[in-house]
Write a structure and sequence with these properties.
Tachylectin-2, Chain A, five-stranded antiparallel beta sheet, globular, 366 residues, binds beta-L-arabinofuranose, 39% strand, mainly beta, 25 strands
Length: 366
Amino acid sequence: MIQVRNFKAFYPAVLMVLVIGCQQPAKQGEERVPNTEQAAVDSIVVENEPLVTEIYTADPSAHVFEGKVYVYPSHDYEAGVPEDDLGSHFDMRDYRVLSMDSIGGPVTLHNVAIDKEDVPWVGRQMWAPDAAEKDGTYYLYFPAKDKEDIFRIGVATSENPEGPFEPQPEAIKGSFSMDPSVFKDEDGIYYMYFGGIWGGQLQRWATGKYNPADVYPADSLPALTPKIAKMSDDMLEFAEDPKDVQILDANGDPITTGDHDRRFFEAAWMHKYNGKYYLSYSTGDTHKIVYATGDNPYGPFTSQGVVLNPVLGWTNHHSIVEVDGKWYLFYHDSSLSKGQTHLRSVKVAELIYDDNGNIVPITAKP
Ligand code: FUB
């Protein structure tokens, strides 16, 4: 384990600015270009350092376990796989956990928590993970393509939050697509949210069965949604068939496929603030993290606004966690790799709510 002295700058909310710019969403098949000049609304501007610089890290899922902050990121590295529209260049092979006693304090980069060679069913691409704790056992949930190149979600267990984790021999039965995040509600029930379109393959499951053709609903029709499933008591399986999580506009109509500024792309995260359920997610080709609120874990959720404007790099991915009475947004950008989309670094900023429970959007400078 390496003690990291880094994480010197942490400049939370200071400036309200208007960032001006506009960009058309990329169509599938178009080149994915790093993006920093997107339309943005009034936002808090932050500028933070990567939590660690020894390795590239991305897709941070943050939790407080045993009084410390643990971050479960993807471990980006240069695998040498050519870039394509399905994200083949994100060819990660293991996970490393980060931890810190407090936000802004020294960050520990732990040893490899699990490697793809340890997981019999995994073929390639260990993407965005999450973790949960129940009765003293830690569960690492991770997506990867199986030997048939179909994304599944696996689970591995440990007595320690940082691992090493022992994988289940097979992926979670009935799992598909990627970006799992596990939310524990106040009644002690755990739910997994998951899914992602394009390279995440969610569109291939629209009929309930795998269809390798990438077909999407027409632009005017309801967009594909994230999925939710209650977890079994032993946390190793789904306790129910995954269900659609509906995201509605202010009129109560489903967000449509053509609404690239608000439709679900990937990276669903759930948190609860003042009794309300906040579903946040990435809009993919418009590069934002947005959120929608609801009254229960299943939704429906009503679209509200932006959490995080586009960062340097193509992907935008986050988690939201309360630490010592303050709320924080963990996110990533490609500043350390000077804009390489698949080599990202995890950062953290304070998250502010207004008096009505609206999240004040953040603009993160590289
Ligand atoms: O890191 C690989 C993929 O990129 C994640 O699973 C997505 O959320 C995006 O960040």
